[in-house]
Amino acid sequence: MTQRFGFQLHATDGRARTGVISTPRGEIRTPAFMPVGTAATVKAMLPESVRATGADILLGNTYHLMLRPTAERIARLGGLHKFMNWDRPILTDSGGFQVMSLASLRKLTEEGVRFSSHVDGSKHMLSPERSMEIQRLLGSDIVMCFDECPALPATEDEVAKSMRLSMRWAQRSRDAFGDRPGHALFGIMQGGVTPELREESAEALKAIGFDGYAVGGLAVGEGQEAMFGVLDYAPGYLPEDKPRYLMGVGKPDDIVGAVERGIDMMDCVLPSRSGRTGQAWTRRGQVNIKNARHQDDPRPLDENCTCPACRSYSRAYLHHVFRAGEMISGMLLTWHNLHYYQELMQGLRDAIAEGRLAAFVADFHAQRGAGDIEPL
Amino acid sequence: MTQRFGFQLHATDGRARTGVISTPRGEIRTPAFMPVGTAATVKAMLPESVRATGADILLGNTYHLMLRPTAERIARLGGLHKFMNWDRPILTDSGGFQVMSLASLRKLTEEGVRFSSHVDGSKHMLSPERSMEIQRLLGSDIVMCFDECPALPATEDEVAKSMRLSMRWAQRSRDAFGDRPGHALFGIMQGGVTPELREESAEALKAIGFDGYAVGGLAVGEGQEAMFGVLDYAPGYLPEDKPRYLMGVGKPDDIVGAVERGIDMMDCVLPSRSGRTGQAWTRRGQVNIKNARHQDDPRPLDENCTCPACRSYSRAYLHHVFRAGEMISGMLLTWHNLHYYQELMQGLRDAIAEGRLAAFVADFHAQRGAGDIEPL
Q1: Which chain A residues touch B44 with a CB distance below 8 Å?
Q2: What ipTM was reported for this prediction?
Q3: With contact defined as beta carbons under 8 Å apart, do B92 and B131 qualify?
Q4: Where does the tRNA-guanine(15) transglycosylase-like domain lie (chains A, B) (predicted)?
Q5: Are residues B178 and B307 in the same domain?
Q6: Do A330 and B327 touch (CB under 8 A)?
Q7: Which of A116, B99, B216, B235 might form a disulfide with B188, Cβ 3.0–4.6 angstroms?
Q8: CA A53/CA B277 separation, integer angstroms
């Protein structure tokens, strides 16, 4: 096992790329989808089940973990990997996005963000230095720079100002991170939907130098068209030889479009959150399992899926346990959704490696267009 | 695999017995603890995980399943085993106890019980004939007679009247059940805490003839002393060569005391329900994982337990995920509790087989007396 962080690009197809990120805790096949383990658990899943879906890496949330059970406590207990029983790579976000969306009494200054916890009202500070400290205490393998993401709608001026603050914070993050062999620090490009600002941000980050680069400030409600608009050019400003991470994305068709545009890593709560609310993602589209049309249906969610929910249970059963409020509903649907997402990623990786991404994408859209399933 | 229902007694130690119940769907080692799968799921567990704890048989609830998703629907979908992905034996209760504790607008007559559903207010009837029909539609391997269990406190007269009604219903259950090779029908002894009534009930049931006999009307709030008082004599009224089932029991020390008194089968929601409320059962007693004393404790719930919760997680983690309201809390603690219960049953079976039950029971009580765990 390698003791260094690295990225090897194996093949490209158009702008799409496939490769492997190496870390001391194992390899991450790219394009990679990272399930979200907010509070040291991927909700409704055991970690061995998450691994069984094909996940190489999880995402942990700095904001949630710093508040409960606290980064210091996790460090005393041996770090996040041991704490949550996941020995493969973990990426942690910086807390910057969630502090702006979840915390109360926020005060943003050049130094950072002061805020009150949404859990118990206690007062905290997040800054580049504190975010680096927390992510080090957690033992994160891939650490994200502390950045600011302006709420939409924002004027170009506001976006520019915010981006330049994030670039100063990126330098402070780099300085505070120091030299930690085997651990990576990723910069986050900002700049909204303005190419000049995106380019300015990318140049600032490259001048500092990072192990990977995220495209930030997307998937915040701007819509798929605007997101793809940025992804049509922004990844091109980033180094070819480093992984590119699109934060908080997304639906299956968002993922496919992002991969087509040169993205290597993504994360999203959607497959796990949907699983708990009775929404399943399949090759043939989204299935709302609470719909009464499933109540007598002996067929699986997806007859071609090999996940435990599809191998062993009917739509009628999944409908019943959802309606009855049983935990197995969230457990099975989350497993299915994560399995589907990872299968999609494997399909994308194989298609890129074999130079047939266009056909794969056409088939992906055609299957979804056919509708979920024929009536009984 | 046998195609008939049968019971082979392998060894006794005092009044305690160990043996095997044979069914076409597999063997049940006795004394047996049956996890409860109320609504076609053992809450917070996948069936393969329930099996991994050592369970040979599950219990399903007629009352819940007849209301949602309905017995007719389950029958159309291939029966309860297929529906819930459990191919081993299932025992179903008759609905008699739960209709009296959960339904509204109940009207009890010689015919049966009319009631309104607690789910949607719809009107239903449960009678010996309807209960047999529902349990047949579900495909239950061990069917329970429809009986009435009087609410406590009750006068001896009320208990006698209720018991005699249950005995008439037992005959009607036997008649309605008919001849179903490979499926068993169990009678239920009533009679409260009055030996003469218990004996009268046992004689009535034996005259009808059943494949097994339950001791009913206990574990309804009368306390352990009163329950053991009845178990000191009541099992002796039942045939030696048929399984004896104590319904709705119980805590680990209830189980040990019941097995000492000649009980072969038990069921209880306690291990699964406790798991969801942060209560763990261990060799050394009950652990309330939400207690702050666990928040920095790197030790497992029980260092000698081999369940997934104890193998891979600290008390600090279990405390954290409980406090954070995460589903993995109920998943891990339920698994632990069911594992502990099944390990206890295996210990009892081995001790009886080897004629050392008294020493096993003394050790069981001594370990619990020592307290949960030493302070850090």
Answers
A1: 327-328, 331
A2: 0.97
A3: no
A4: 15-368
A5: no
A6: yes
A7: B216
A8: 29
